[in-house]
Write a structure and sequence with these properties.
By secondary structure, the protein is α+β, with helices and mostly antiparallel strands. The chain has one domain: outer membrane lipoprotein receptor (LolB), chain A (Clam). It has 2 helices and 11 strands. Strands 6-5-4-3-2-1-11-10-9-8-7 form an 11-stranded antiparallel β-sheet. A hairpin with a 2-residue loop joins β8 and β9. The chain is extended and about 85 Å long.
């Protein structure tokens, strides 16, 4: 009888120790702060019609400093067409730079309903920042990085989901805009380069 209690106590101790080590490791991983770096995220944009047919439309190079992801430059090339579009973003909104040094304002993105996007917050470089958000819906892998998905409803069955990796700061690695008719606009990173 004493032997049974000894074995049971030993098994309980081992299980408790394993659970503690696992929880401790998870907490340590969640609170790890990744450094702010300059990055180029290369993405493919596509449109999926209500029947599920996907058409790739653009390739995008997004250059940012993850210490300040609200200021960026992006180059977009339409798939199957010549030329490129260069956009920038700063405190005044999205703009298209002109060869003469001027700029043409494209649109103010602040009115779009979407999940909160980190803006240089050091916490955006930790997994905990994403996991403890009210919009957190799970994890995925994009371009070799673990990403944390946030989703926001846009009403009428439409929603937008964006995915971030703390290793890449506030830069979005995947976004899906699901429309009420079942179609989707997607942008998914295929490569991340640190500069």
């Amino acid at each position: 009888m004493v032997r049974i209690f000894t074995v049971a106590a030993l098994l309980t101790f081992v299980a408790g120790t394993a659970a503690y080590v696992t929880a401790s490791k998870r907490a340590q991983d969640e609170s790890k702060v990744w450094p702010a770096r300059k990055v180029c995220v290369i993405s493919l944009e596509s449109h999926v019609d209500p029947q599920g047919n996907e058409t790739f439309t653009w390739m995008r190079w997004h250059y940012a400093d993850t210490a300040n992801p609200t200021a960026f430059k992006e180059v977009r090339k339409r798939i199957g067409a010549a030329g490129e579009t260069v956009w920038g973003h700063d405190g005044d909104g999205v703009f298209e730079p002109k060869p003469d040094g001027g700029r043409l304002t494209v649109k103010d993105e602040s009115a779009d309903p979407k999940p909160d996007i980190p803006t240089g917050d050091p916490e955006a470089h930790t997994a905990s920042y994403y996991i403890h958000s009210r919009e957190y819906t799970g994890t995925d892998t994009v371009a070799g990085f673990t990403v944390y998905k946030w989703r926001a409803s846009q009403g009428g069955g439409a929603w937008i989901e964006i995915s971030h990796s703390p290793e890449v700061g506030g830069v979005i690695l995947k976004s899906i805009e699901h429309h009420a008719d079942g179609s989707e606009d997607r942008e998914i990173a295929i490569k991340v380069e640190f500069k």
